[in-house]
Specification:
This protein has 294 residues and is of the alpha/beta class. It has seven helices and 16 strands. 24% of the residues lie in helices and 24% in strands. Helix 2 packs parallel to helix 3 (120-127) and helix 3 packs parallel to helix 5 (149-158). The chain is globular.
Amino acid sequence: MKKWFKRLGLAVGTLALLIAAAASYAYYIEPRQFVVVRETLAVPNWSAGLNGFRVVAISDIHAGSNYATEERLRHLVEQANAQDPDIIVLLGDYVSEAKFDREAMKRPPGTDRTEIRIPVATIAGIVGGLEAKHGVFAVIGNHDEYHNAAKITAEFENAGITVLENETAVIDLGGESVTLWGIEDLWKNRKVPVAAYDAIADKKNIIALTHNPDSLLQAPGGISLMFAGHTHGGQLNWPFFGPIAAVNDKRFMDGHAVVDSKHVFVTSGFGTSVIPFRLRVPPEIAVVTLTSED
């Protein structure tokens, strides 16, 4: 019996050490890493003349979260610019809450409703250094809505970033064009407004931008590709079990997915939210090169 208890104690002690080691790694080491994910995707309704169009996708900066410091944001900007992108897309959740105040959350839109770790003006000043051949475009995420979407939109636009909220922007590429369709965050009204999409005359070369990839399920089928974030790749990618889809459809966890013949690319983002850990999901930016599937 004593031998059995000794073995049990050894097993429990070993498990506790492994958990402590994993937690230490997920808090102190992985959030300090940085990777550039590169993908080439063949997508529908895309002109062969636009093959090689390069998009840098950045999401879930959560400035001020674990190791998402101002210095690190500047490094992110440098790395994104070094990819020589045609466009850079920012996919929401730029702020990180220091705390939630339930009473403050009752304030009307257009006012600060959460206390954040890094001021919006500082974040905008840094990401305003992003440079791409045909511009930098952004959408609003759910944490941005919690704080003050109007302020974030104004600060970003003052920094030279085009924020799209249920509207489109056309990039003229000399004989060909790309239409960017920015969609409001799905959690805002639990729907995908399609008026801006319906107004597009030529349903070709359409890139949809949104925060929540579950928007794909309501999106029309004529888009070439949707870019989204929100998932953080689960933030914890457990050995054997994989990530847990706590805030999204499990099909849209990370990377490229196709549902009902519609394509989405999800980037697992840069910062952290709710818990300050990343395990086997290092901070990233994504470089996606588009080609025609025809």
